[in-house]
TrEMBL record:
Protein name listed in UniProt: RNA-binding protein containing a PIN domain
Pfam families (alphabetical): NYN_YacP
Coiled coil: 121-180, 206-233
Cited InterPro entries: YacP-like
Length: 438
């Protein structure tokens, strides 16, 4: 039956049961309420509401003890509810229904229903009051909006009157200025005709002068281009000749010093009389004599050491021909990085005697690689647009002066033959790979 009680009646029943439970002896406390009794008095009714309501409903002994407590605690209410005339109209319905439910009075069901109706009426009255207050608030807002609309309407009406007055004044001024505008239009047409005539004359003069100026500018550009080309050719030719002469001089000096050290020649100059009995030597000096002697394999790393020992040497390396034979599984960037790392260590030991240049083929890429880190003593060159690395290697060999030792590291037969015809020594790429892996 507890689920049929209104919420306020049930709350009042639980409060009475919690207060009566606090005064019971431990021996008569139902087992289901032992834990509830340990709660604080302020929390007992809230935390133990379910077991307290169940005990009131199901345990007649406990309900009887709660009824005794209610008779002691609320004698006036008990007397009023048990009077022949029933409870007074002013008595609180929820409290009366709770006492009748606990005492199990004959009409307790009617009192519970009355309390439920009273509670529903109170809720309805509260909602009605809230709705009335909301209606009043909305009516006040509507009235405020109406006042604001009237104010804005008056302002708009005043602005409309002002706009009409201004429009009338503008029309009056427009009519007054109409004659002046027509006279100005007539004068403007006359001026336009005169200006058109003058513009035609000026345009013809400008075309004539423009054609003459264009012809003169073209002539000036031709003369400037010819002068610039002449200066550039002279400068390039002079720079190339000076570079070739300086490299040849350094090579000859290095070769002479190397020969002097190798043959242990005295520093003094020999006298003509000292050379009368010396036999004739029909062969010229070969800087690569003894390099790659007979019986050596093409991949012998010692060949690279012998080549680098030649004084004044310029070692030119066909970059991708070497890397694709040794590191073909890597990307081109990784191939370049690995080769340059090995050449950096190799060139560091021959920095005073050899010049090292690595040529990479850039004809198959859209843009040349940028930011290539060049080790100390190693020059990195990419072929020109539309050209192969082979062309750049031949250009480098051809640029060297006759007499300077030049060695080209490549396994490309065509490149090797072309460079050999230009006077360069060729070394197999396998020898370079073996030397770098050592």
């Amino acid at each position: 039956m507890t689920e049929t009680l209104p919420a306020d009646v049930r709350s009042q029943v639980v409060v009475y049961a919690a207060e009566a439970l606090a005064e019971l002896a431990d021996a008569v406390v139902p087992a289901s309420l032992v834990a509830v009794r340990r709660f604080k008095a302020s929390r007992r009714a809230r935390l133990g509401a379910v077991p307290l309501a169940a005990a009131i409903e199901q345990d007649a002994h406990f309900r009887g003890r709660v009824a005794e407590w209610v008779r002691r605690a609320n004698p006036d209410l008990v007397a009023a509810i048990t009077a022949p005339d029933g409870p007074p109209p002013a008595a609180p319905p929820a409290q009366m229904a709770a006492i009748a439910y606990i005492l199990r009075l004959p009409d307790w069901v009617a009192l519970v229903e009355e309390a439920a109706r009273s509670s529903a009426q109170e809720v309805s009255s509260a909602r009605m009051d809230e709705a009335t207050r909301e209606i009043s608030r909305l009516q006040e807002q509507i009235e405020a909006v109406r006042r604001l609309a009237r104010t804005e309407q008056e302002q708009l009406r005043a602005q409309l009157d002002e706009a009409r007055a201004e429009a009338e004044e503008a029309r009056r001024r427009l009519r007054a200025s109409g004659d002046r505008v027509r006279r100005a239009e007539i004068a403007a047409r006359e001026i336009s005709v005169a200006a058109e005539t003058a513009r035609d004359i000026a345009a013809q003069a400008a075309r004539d002068s423009g054609a003459e100026a264009k012809r003169l500018r073209a002539r000036v550009h031709e003369l400037e281009a010819a002068a610039s080309a002449t200066r550039r050719d002279n400068r390039d030719s002079r720079s190339m000749d000076e570079a070739r002469l300086r490299v040849l001089l350094d090579t000859l000096m290095a070769a002479a010093n190397g020969v002097r050290r190798e043959l242990s020649l005295p520093t003094t100059v020999a006298r003509p009389a000292d050379l009368i009995s010396r036999p004739e030597n029909d062969r010229g000096f070969d800087p690569f004599s003894g390099v790659g002697g007979r019986g050596r394999a093409d991949d012998d790393p010692a060949i690279i050491d012998d080549v680098l020992a030649v004084p004044g040497l310029h070692l030119i390396i066909d970059g991708y021909n070497v890397t694709k034979r040794g590191y073909g599984a890597l990307t081109l960037q990784a191939q370049r990085a690995r080769l340059l790392a090995g050449l950096g260590a190799l060139a560091g030991r021959a920095l005073d005697t050899a010049e090292v240049t690595v040529v990479f083929d850039a004809t198959a890429v859209v843009a040349r690689p940028v930011g290539v880190a060049m080790p100390r003593g190693v020059r990195v060159v990419f072929s020109q647009a539309g050209e192969l690395a082979d062309d750049e290697i031949r250009r480098l060999v051809r640029a060297e002066p006759p007499g300077r030792p030049v060695a080209v590291v490549t396994s490309d037969r065509e490149v090797a033959e072309n460079c050999a015809s230009l006077g360069a020594r060729t070394v197999s790429s396998d020898a370079m790979l073996s030397r770098l892996d050592r």
